[in-house]
Amino acid sequence: MIKQTVLVCLMLCFAAGTGAQVSSGAVSNVNAVQAFQQYQRWANYLYRQEDYQQAHRHYLRLAENGDKHAQFKLAEMYAQGRGVERDIVEAYAWSSVAIESDNQYYRKTHRELSEQLDTQQLKQAEKTAAEKVDKYGAYRTAVKARREVAKQRRRCTGSLTGNTCDRVQASSLSCQASGSRVPSKVCIILGSVGLESVVGQQLQDIRKVEKALDQLIAELKPDR
C-alpha cells in the first residue's frame, strides 16, 4: 500500500523551493506532475469518446510507469472487452496492481473479478498479477523515481549550499508533452509519485527528497 505520508513529504520538499517553474529556455515550464496529469486527462478523454484502442495505448503507457488510475482502467477494459479482447485473467492481474492504492472501489472490483475465475484461471491470474506488480507496482515505481532524482542531482551545478539546479541541461527535465500529448517516461514516473522535478531546487532539498524516497522504498519493499 502506498504510504501517503511519505508522498506528502515528497511534495512538501518541493513546495519549499521554486519547483520546475523556471524561465530558462532550456527547460520546459511544465513540471512532471502537470505533464502526468495532462496526459492522464487525455487518456480519460479518449476513453469517454469511446476511442478505446487509443485510450488503451495511452493507459498502458501510464500504467507501466506507475499510474494506479490507468492500471485500474486497463482492468476495466479487459473485463469489459473495450478496445481489447475480453480477458478476465488480464483484468484481474491489472487490478492486482491498482489495489496497492487505498481505493475501495478498486478493491471491490478486484474481488468481483476473482469471483469470475475458476481455480485454474485464478492460479494463472495470480501468477500474471505477481509479474505485473513486480514490474509496475508502487515499489518498482519508487525505485525508478529514486534513480531519476539521483541522475538529475548529479547533473546539477554548484556546491551543496546556495546553488540551485536551474541550469541543468537535461532533456529528461523537459516535461512538456509533445504534439501527440505524450510526455517522457521519466516525467510520468516522477509525476506518478507526486514529484515535479529537481529544476530550481536547492541541492539540500533534493537530498531530502532522496531520503524520503528511500523511506518509501523501504516501506514498500516486498518480503520485509
Topology:
Elements lengths: L3 H12 L16 H17 L3 H12 L4 H13 L7 H11 L5 H11 L4 H18 L1 H18 L29 H8 L10 H18 L4
Task: Write up what this structure looks like.
The structure is a single chain. By secondary structure, the protein is mainly α. The chain has a domain at 1-29 and 137-224. The protein is 62% helix and 0% strand. It is built from ten helices and no strands.
Helical/strand content category: mainly alpha
Outline = globular
Order of helices and strands: HHHHHHHHHH
Share of residues in helices: 55-70%
The number of distinct helices, counting runs of at least 4 residues, comes to: 10
Beginning-to-end CA distance, first to last residue: 13 Å
How much strand content do the residues show?
Answer: under 5%
| Rounded Rg | 19 Å
Low-confidence blocks of residues: 1-9, 11-29, 158-162, 167-173
Largest sheet: none
Overall average residue pLDDT: 79
How many beta-strand runs? 0
What are the main properties of this structure?
globular; 10 helices; 224 residues
